[in-house]
UniProtKB/TrEMBL annotation:
A Pfam family per the record: FAD_binding_3
Residue ranges constituting the FAD-binding domain according to the UniProt record: 5-329
UniProt-recorded name of the protein: FAD-dependent oxidoreductase
InterPro entries: FAD-bd (IPR002938), FAD-dep_Monooxygenase_BioMet (IPR050493), FAD/NAD-bd_sf (IPR036188)
Keyword Oxidoreductase included in the entry's annotation: yes
Domain of life: Bacteria
Length: 362
């Protein structure tokens, strides 16, 4: 039986492990954490990603646990609508709406679909000084076959990407820091509100709760000396309803803060092959993108099913080349779009002209 070693059991690595297992591969998944992810806010799952989850056998569980996303708008801080997003338009072609699911619920569903023996939690693997040969030999110590393929799924700060492709391809700070959480406030509409150098988003969620997110221009690593909640209330004071209500309900313990990175420059290939060595990058390790389009996890799921379809045992190099052809261009286009969307949302100069154009385009 062909054997794949996968590095990282995030969404990309776990989904790939399920896909390859279904395709007849023996899989070993190394994850440095000791258990599946238990934190994180909600993720928007777009129809293409839901189709990928259907292929992995997890789609129905997700539909049952998720909330279909309501209609939405982009607004100015005074509440004026700049653009609208109709839920029907997103749904019309694929037949599924965008579904919101708690990240930990998705992580649990994926972990439950894996063979228990496939995953080794608490297994941090280290590429330092290792060539591809020793990557492929990773599971030899465990008495397992040498890997026919190494799947690199160790996230946006991937050390294996560096080992394979060099220091040039890095996680680049976007200049924006993101904060998010969930509050017990009922809202009815998805809104994202743009102000100079900052934005605030509100998404109705389950059981009368609301997910919120904010982003602001900030140096990397900066944290509010007087607490994030006080800083948020000051930055977004006077913004339209229901932002004030949401801000009143936020407590310091509920705020998650992440600086936002993407992978830059675009990778020349998602595949490194040569001799008996085969490695492939999936998810954020390949195409880490800013969350502005809400597509990083979705694309990781599509990577997983595409790779599983491409990798016929015995014809690994051909299958990897096909995966690269199918996935590199579309995901790199999204990386660029996402970064530009973030810049437009935070625009300081020409924000007035941007708003006029958006309103005219409605
Ligand atoms: C604020 C925010 C909001 C987002 N919202 C959305 C959204 O609505 N919809 C969407 O589709 N996407 C969204 N995303 C993007 C999404 O979170 C990522 O694209 C996705 O989590 C990437 O999954 P991954 O498995 O590639 O990487 P990760 O989730 O980073 O997983 C990598 C895994 O590898 C492990 N690992 C790393 N190094 C090693 C090692 N040496 N040995 C063993 N294990 C290792 C890590 O512990 C980790 O578990 C958002 C991102 C952010 C920051």
């Amino acid at each position: 039986m062909p054997h794949a070693t996968i590095i990282g059991a995030g969404i990309a690595g776990t989904a790939t492990a399920i896909g390859l297992t279904h395709a007849g591969w023996h899989v070993t998944l190394h994850e440095r954490a000791t258990h599946p992810e238990t934190s994180g806010a909600a993720l928007g799952i777009w129809p293409t990603a839901l189709a990928a989850l259907d292929e992995l056998g997890v789609g129905e569980a997700l539909r049952a646990a998720a909330t279909p996303q309501a209609a939405g708008s982009i607004r100015r801080p005074d509440g004026a609508v700049l653009a609208t997003l109709s839920a029907e338009r997103v749904t019309r072609r694929p037949g599924d709406p965008v579904h919101l699911i708690a990240r930990r619920d998705l992580a649990e569903m994926l972990a439950a679909a894996l063979p228990v023996s496939a995953v080794r939690y608490g297994s941090k693997v280290d590429p330092s000084g290792a060539g591809l040969d020793s990557l492929a030999g990773l599971d030899n110590e465990a008495g397992e076959a040498r890997a026919d393929v190494v799947v690199v799924a160790d996230g946006v700060f991937s050390t294996y990407r560096t080992a394979l492709l060099g220091e040039r391809y890095r996680a680049r700070y976007t200049g924006q820091s993101g904060l998010r959480g969930r509050v017990a406030v009922t809202t009815h509409e998805v809104t994202e509100t743009w102000g100079p150098g900052r934005r605030f988003g509100v998404t109705p969620y389950l059981d009368g709760t609301t997910n919120w997110y904010a982003s602001l221009d900030a140096p990397p690593g900066q944290r509010a000396a007087g607490g994030e909640v006080a800083m948020l209330r000051e930055l977004f004071a006077g913004w339209h309803d229901p932002i004030g209500q949401v801000l009143d309900a936020i407590t310091e313990d509920d705020v998650m803060r992440h600086d936002m990175y993407d992978v830059h420059p675009h990778l020349p290939s998602y595949v490194v092959t040569g001799g008996a060595r085969n490695a492939v990058l999936v998810g954020d390790a390949a195409h880490g993108m800013t969350p502005d389009l809400g597509r990083g996890a979705c694309e990781a799921l599509v990577d997983a099913v595409t790779l599983a379809r491409c990798l016929a045992p015995g014809r690994v190099a051909e299958g990897l080349a096909r995966y690269d052809r199918l996935r590199r261009r579309p995901t790199q286009r999204l990386q660029t779009l996402a970064r530009n969307a973030g810049r437009i949302a935070h625009a300081r100069r020409l924000a007035g002209a941007r708003d006029l154009l958006l309103r005219a385009a409605r």
